[in-house]
Every structure is written in structure tokens, then in C-alpha cells.
Amino acid sequence: MREAPAPPTPRSAIEDYAIIGDCRSAALISREGSIDWLCWPRFDSPSLFAAILDQDKGGRFSVRPVAAARITRRYLGETNVLETTFVTDGGVLRLTDLMPVTSEADKRRSMWASHQILRRVECIEGAVDIEIRCDPRPSYGRESCRLKDRGALGLYFEKQGRAFVLRSEIPLRLSRTEEGVRQRHRLQAGDRHHLSAVYSEREPSFVPPLGEEAERRIGLTLDWWRAWSARCTYEGPHRDAVVRSALVLKLLAYAPSGAIIAAPTTSLPEWRGGTRNWDYRFCWLRDASLTLRALFDLGFPEEALAFLHWLTHSTRLTWPDLQILYDVHGETELAEEELTALSGFADSRPVRIGNQASDQFQLDIYGEVIDAAYAFVRQGGRLTAATARLLVGFGKTVCRRWREPDEGIWEVRAGRRHHTYSKAMCWVALDRLLRLHQAGKLRAPVEWFERERAALRAEIDARGFNQRLGSYVSVYEGDELDASLLLLARHGFIEPHSQRARGTRDAIIEALGSNGLLYRYLGIDDGLPGDEGAFGICSFWAVDAYALAGELQAGDALFERVLGYANDLGLFAEEIDPADGSALGNFPQAFTHVGLIDAALSLAAARRDNGEQHQTRASG
């Protein structure tokens, strides 16, 4: 009997994806129920499924109706468990997807697979024909993979210490015409089946049972995420959006080390068909420091402490200098490589792994890291002696190097310049260290730091502010604007109600705004070809600037508008196309969700009309 022809695989937009994860790795699942991106055993491992980057060569694991369907999806409450509902002419299908997680105590009581995806498929009404397809393509599709049938033990492949096992309560047969599984099955109302994919690498492979055990793991995972979310202290407007953003950030925190990655994907384009396609599966100190602050402000101090421990460990080889990004275990060699065999998302090439930005010099990260540690201490955290020495060492590096040009926050590849925001963050670094010294939290060379802080202030005001524009500018003595300057008030470098703060904000919104969104810059030679979208976090920075200035009506209106660009699950990519609202860049992006949280907190603080509390948040 010939295999029935498969329905065509829909091409998904970036915003059509959802994310599941277990704080070690993550999977992106399309609206149609296809796992199109998964790297195991950790975020930056080579991919096992990468159809998001090449429909033909990348590999996928999909469960979906054969017939056309109306599709809705949601996360089950304040969790990262995804539920997708397909309504066909013949019936209703429900698909539940998760990576099982639970407490360490639960893991000690029973065997637990280190890396598992669990999928539950149910027919709610009528009858639905489904297609199951599982086509692993290890190492970004560079390795062949033919599954073998082990009967009751499932389908598997094993190579060089790596093992993948697929088990299903629906009997699966290997395809006779291609690698992997492609099979149809009819479900009747009341039918419920589980599928499980398990991966192991250089360790014994434990394959959990299905049936009641699968249901137990679904319950444990729901309980774990609900317990984590319940710790969120935010009770202001748009709480759902804030909690969803916090859940995204938690997914992007690598539990074994405390590192926080920028995004779980690589090479999703900043413009469809363009070349600005980067690997974001690493820990940018800037992004992670802002994430730490956001989580701490929401009532999650354990994540902040874990990150500081990771920071102490990871920077030991480069201390007292900071590299701008590291892998999740603190490695610094992140050589950039192009995968020429993959066609790229929407034919956007090149597809890259690794990131050459690791070689750049960016001064602002010293301020971001030290300000995050300062916020940690202000909310009751304690610095170890090692962390205190680490921070003072970074301050000394600032004093030695702040007069140098750098590539800046936006990682331009057109050479180093004197970026105003970078210098301001050097000022922040010394200012926070001096405050920590005054509070008795560390010992700093006060006279040196005070002298350099004053020199920074004088130079930034003299060379970084354009009197004609009434605004701070991107580089010294220039007239170009970039959205990072919106943060000067938030970091306490300028007073939020001052004319300079408002002038800078208004000039940036006028010059860089489009449909309620902001580009990070326009008209600046960044050394890269092609276009990009509006930058998601920048619009939230504008909301924050309005809130800090007490302009609530403008801030609320902009916040509502920007929230409307999230996908149906509340997820944001790095960038947004102002013309049609589609998502661009890697997804979901920690930076954008951090901006959402900060903007919501600032609006809530302003709404309480507490000047002291308002100013406290503005000055870090």
C-alpha cells in the first residue's frame, strides 16, 4: 500500500511561533503544531530540528490535522505549557506541548529524563485525521539520521555518544521513502495519546513511560510553573503581559549556571531576505544584567543571585576586562561561522552560528553590570568578597579605558567611535561603585573614582549634547540620534523632568518613530548592508521616559500601542516591521520583554504618584 501524500507544510511567520522550554534548552512550535527549532542538550548546542531555517533540510517534529483547521492557542495560565486547538469540519483536536520540569525534590523521588519533550494529542469532538512527522536532522542538518525501530522501546538513533528516542502511544512506522516518520492516524472523540522525545548525550538514556506517568509529569510541570509565577509581586495594569514576559525571561535563564541568553534562536532575519542574521544563543552581559534587574524588581531574587555567581565565574579569565558576551558556561571563544547549506528563514542568508561581536569593545557593559549589582544590593542582596573585588576591578578598568572609542551598544561594524551612551554608562559604573562604597558594601579608591566620574560628566555634557537639536546625540560632536539615549534619565545621568531629558526624548521620537515604534537609529553607517525593522525595546524605553517625566497619558497610550504588536501569546521578537506589524529578528527576545517589564513598572510607579519612589526607580 502506498503512503498517502502529505499535506503541504505551511511556511510560518516568526510571530506564528510559540516557545516551550525547561531552562536548559527551548523549542519553537509553529501555529500548525510543528516543532521547527530545537537544540539539545542546551540552547547553543547544534540543532536537532531546524525547519525554521530550511523547510527541506532542517528537520521537524509535527503533529497536526490533515484537513484545514481554524487554530487557536494559549499557554495554560501562568505557565510555559502550550495548548493548541484545531477545529476542522470533522472534529476538534487539542495538542498540549511542554518540556517537563519539576522540583529537585521530585526528581530525587523518581527517575527523570534530563531532556524531554512531551506532546499530548486529544480528540475533543467528532473525528480528526492527524499526521505525525518526526524527522531529526542533527547538527543543523549536516548529519544524516535514520531512525531504527526498537519495538516497545520506540524509535531511536545513536551516534557518537548522542541518543534520541521517540516513543508514542500511537503505533509509528518508519517511512519507506525517506528518513524519519510520516504517518496518519484517525482519532475519535475521547481519544488521548502521548508522544515523547528524549535526548541524552554521554550519559545513560532514561526513557520515561507514557500513559499515567506522562499525565503525572504534565501535572508536575504545570504546578512548577504556577508556583514560580505566583512569586511575582507585580499587581499593576497589564499584569498578564508582565507575567508572560517574566516567564519568557525565566525560560531563557540557563539553570545549571545562571547565565541568561539573549534569545533561543539564530539567524532569524532583521529584514526578510536580508543579511542581518545573527546567533543570539549566548549571554550578552548587557541583556542579562537588565534581565536580572527586571526579575529582581518582580520578586525573583534567586535568578539575580544565580546570575551574579555566573558572572563571578565567567569573567575570571578576562577580569578586570569584560567581554560583551559569553556562552552559558562562560566560554569566550564564539567564532562566527556560516552554514551555507541552509536556505535561511524566508531565504535570508547567511545562516550564522557563533557571533563575531564577542571580539568587540563596548564600554557600556561596565555600567550595566555594576548597576545590576547595585540594584541587587539595594533590594537586600549581599555581595560576597569575591564579587566586591570583581566590581571594583571593573571600575578601575573604566577609569583606564573610558577615553577610548568603542563599537557601542548597537555593535556597529564600521569601526570605533566615541558613543555618548557608552560614556554615560561609564559614569553610571563609577557612580554606583561610589554609592556602594559609601554604604559599606565594598572598598573603592574613592578619590580616583570621584575624579574620573567628574571628568566623564564634564566631557559628556560638553561633547555629547547638541545645543541646536536640544538633545544628546549618538556620538560626540555629531547630530545623529540613537534610541539608547532615552535611558540617560532612567540611569540617573539626567533628571527625568529636565529640559535635556524631554528634549532628547522628543527629538528621538520625532526622528526615529514610525507607527508608534522606534528604530534604534537611522542614517548611521553601521558597516552592514541592508535594512532592519523597528527595535522592540526602544519603544518601551520611550514609554519609560514618559513615565519618569510624569506624562502618564502619553506613556499609557504608547504602551497600549506597543503591546498590540505582540503575537497572540504575548511574545515579542527583537524587531517589528512598522508597515505590517510582523515580527523580525530572533524570537522570543529577552531584551524586548525586559523593556516591557520596565515600562510597566515605571508606569505603575508614576501612577502611584510617589515622587520619592518614582525617583528611586529612575536613578537605579
Contiguous low-pLDDT stretches (5 residues minimum) are 1-6, 612-616
Class per helix and strand makeup: alpha+beta
How far apart lie the N and C ends?
69 Å
Shape: globular
- The whole-angstrom Rg is 25 Å
Q: What characterizes the major β-sheet?
A: 14 strands, antiparallel
The tally of strands reads 25
Strand content: 15-25%
Binned, the helix content reads 25-40%
Secondary structure tally, helices: 15
Mean pLDDT: 93
Keywords:
disordered N terminus; alpha+beta; 15 helices; 14-stranded antiparallel beta sheet; single chain; three-stranded antiparallel beta sheet; 620 residues
What does this structure look like?
This protein has 620 residues and is an alpha+beta fold. 33% of the residues lie in helices and 19% in strands. The chain is built from 15 helices and 25 strands. The strands form six sheets. Strands 1, 2, 3, 4, 5, 6, 7, 8, 9, 10, 11, 12, 13 and 14 form a 14-stranded antiparallel beta sheet that branches. The chain has a three-stranded antiparallel beta sheet with strand order 23-24-25. Helix 3 (239-251) runs antiparallel to helix 14, helix 8 packs antiparallel against helix 9 (446-463) and helix 13 (552-563) packs antiparallel against helix 14. The longest helix is centred in the middle third of the chain and has 19 residues, at 212-230.
